[in-house]
Amino acid sequence: MKPISLTRFLIQEQHAGHINADLRLLIEVVARACKTISNAVGKGALGSVLGEAGTPESASVNIQGEAQKKLDVLSNEILLEANEWGGHLAGLASEEMEHSHPIPNAYPKGNYLLLFDPLDGSSNIDVNISVGTIFSVLRCPDGITEPGDEHFLQPGTAQVCAGYTTYGPSTMLVLTVGRGTHAFTLDREQGSFMLTTRDLQIPVETKEFAINMSNQRHWEAPMQRYIADLLAGKDGPRGKDFNMRWVASMVADVHRILTRGGIFIYPLDAKMRDKGGKLRLMYEANPMSFLVEQAGGAASTGRGRMLDVVPTGLHQRVPVFIGSKNEVNAALRYHAEFDAGK
Ligand code: AHM
Ligand code: MG
């Protein structure tokens, strides 16, 4: 079969009436920006892009109090610059910016809002392990031409498109516009993303989990019990042996799950209880949940469907349980039983 480029795939989606021209342009622009980020990531030390942003005397810190890497800042600039002038957006928001960024009046404006984590898995940049970009697309509410933060606060069910790019041994773009989840691989010679898997399907059952075990002593009681039962293997209540993986790049962990199943968990723990969790709802949990649901998986906060969470802040954090449906549901049962006092 003739290979299908992202451009051709999107034109087919547009002709079928599934997306409009603006959304097609938006996705193409994000994909192009991701290719630029992929080039920067790929150069590594040769491109002088590794290490912390700022100076040794004054390190650069983002709004969430996290030290910024040079590549965090560069990737944010690449996405901002690429998306500002095309006429498809009303505003942007990013993990690296305190407030949303309305499209300047000098440029034409569109009806979409774009949110992104420009470089997810920052702790892996300097050690040459996969990192990625995550993005989510919402509609700008009717009649709003200069959106503020509050206009981005829509539940995940309102997303019209979500995706991520993983910068690993190959660069891949994984995308949904609400009609399945599809994977594209960057052909570096051609400079084009090519469709390599249509309709990814996450196996319903799994024997693999992903969690940062070093936080175990800080977890809530139902999490302690759930993971203890997984670790007990064949002889425990779950009756099977489980394997564990943790890349510490959500993009890479979720990509593995979209490919061969599994459950990814970043639960609430005592250290971050006040913040609500570690991962961010609007540009990490929601887009990943949309992609995973569209691939037949499930995504939850441990107590409810992720996509139903009504957001209260642009940088709001949530606990995340995402992946193979039966395993996500199993984890939910432990929480429900605990909450019911069992
Ligand atoms: P980042 O967006 O600042 O890179 O943080 C998010 C990352 C996720 O990709 C990953 O799952 C998690 O943080 C790893 O956290 P930890 O270092 O606590 O294991
Ligand atoms: Mg991130």
Entry summary:
The protein is of the alpha+beta class and 342 residues long.
Q: On the 0-100 scale, what is the average pLDDT?
A: 95
What fraction of residues sit in β-strands?
15-25%
Would you identify the CATH architecture of the largest domain?
Answer: 2-Layer Sandwich
Coarse morphology: globular
Radius of gyration: 20 Å
Helix content: 25-40%
> What structural category do the secondary elements indicate?
alpha+beta
Number of E strands: 15
Number of domains: 2
| Tally of helical runs | 8
The largest pleated sheet is described as: 8 strands, mixed
Termini Cα gap: 55 Å
Order of helices and strands: HHHEEEEHEEEEEHEHEEHEEEH
- CATH class of the largest domain, named Alpha Beta
CATH fold name of the largest domain, please? Answer: Fructose-1,6-Bisphosphatase, Chain A, domain 1
Name the poorly predicted regions.
none
Distinctive features:
2 domains, 8 helices, 342 residues, single chain, binds 2,5-anhydro-1,6-di-O-phosphono-D-mannitol, binds magnesium ion, Fructose-1,6-Bisphosphatase, Chain A, domain 1, 8-stranded mixed beta sheet, alpha+beta, 5-stranded mixed beta sheet, 15 strands
SSE blueprint:
Elements: H1 6-15, H2 21-43, H3 70-84, E1 89-94, E2 101-102, E3 112-120, E4 131-139, H4 149-152, E5 161-167, E6 171-176, E7 181-187, E8 192-197, E9 208-210, H5 221-231, E10 243-244, H6 250-260, E11 263-266, E12 279-280, H7 281-294, E13 298-300, E14 317-318, E15 320-323, H8 325-339
Parallel strand pairs: 1-3, 9-10, 9-11
Antiparallel strand pairs: 1-2, 3-4, 4-5, 5-6, 6-7, 7-8, 11-15, 12-14, 13-15
Helix pairs in contact: 1-2, 2-3, 5-8
Bound molecules: 2,5-anhydro-1,6-di-O-phosphono-D-mannitol and magnesium ion.
